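Lab notebook, design round three. We kept the backbone fixed and only want residue identities now. Task for the bench partner: fill in a sequence for the structure below.
Input structure tokens:
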């Protein structure tokens, strides 16, 4: 726990950007009901802040996935460890993620969810690391920040389950 963390995006910067994205979402859906799907656990901090600032009739559901793979890049073999509570058929769905890295997790998830016949399905992420993308079919509609290929913690993102509760976004400095 004595890692040194360098702040990449302050609490204020994140709050301002989340508000902007929420306003964009509210405009785009133009008063229509929106169903947010939060990807646990990393997406939970972002989802709460975002949801509070979206001005639409909003419903929420949660899903948890784990991806298996050696090393630091996920394999694309994804297991749903907690499924949604409610059907998404006919709904306008927005998936909320903490970070899109290789894109493997979301490429799989979007395929699974499309088979449940939502009216629409889009993606909103706090962070995007485009340099690491291997699945280019993952199209992200809303991105708060694009980040370099560094290991990020805070605002939901963990290192070995720690640091999720940091109010800012940071990187662990090499000691
Ligand atoms: P993907 O399938 O490679 O896109 O994996 C995405 C998942 O890996 C995210 O939802 C995070 O849980 C995790 N992840 C990817 N990059 C980072 C990072 O820099 N810090 C913390 N978690 C990360
Ligand atoms: Mg995650």
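Proposed sequence:
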């Amino acid at each position: 726990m004595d890692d040194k963390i360098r702040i990449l995006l302050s609490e204020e910067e994140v709050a301002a950007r989340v508000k902007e994205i929420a306003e964009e979402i509210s405009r785009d859906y133009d008063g229509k009901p929106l169903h947010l799907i939060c990807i646990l656990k990393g997406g939970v901090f972002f989802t709460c802040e975002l949801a509070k600032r979206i001005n639409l009739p909003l419903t929420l559901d949660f899903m948890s996935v784990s991806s298996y793979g050696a090393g630091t890049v996920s394999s694309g073999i994804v297991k749903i460890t907690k499924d949604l509570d409610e059907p998404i058929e006919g709904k306008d769905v927005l998936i909320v993620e903490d970070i899109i890295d290789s894109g493997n997790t979301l490429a799989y998830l979007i395929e699974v969810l499309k088979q449940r016949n939502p009216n629409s399905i889009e993606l909103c992420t706090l962070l995007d690391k485009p340099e690491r993308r291997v699945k280019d079919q993952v199209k992200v509609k809303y991105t708060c920040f694009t980040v370099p290929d560094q290991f990020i913690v805070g605002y939901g993102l963990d290192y070995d389950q720690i640091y999720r509760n940091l109010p800012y976004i940071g990187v662990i400095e090499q000691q």
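Keep this in mind before ordering anything: The two ends are 12 Å apart (CA to CA).
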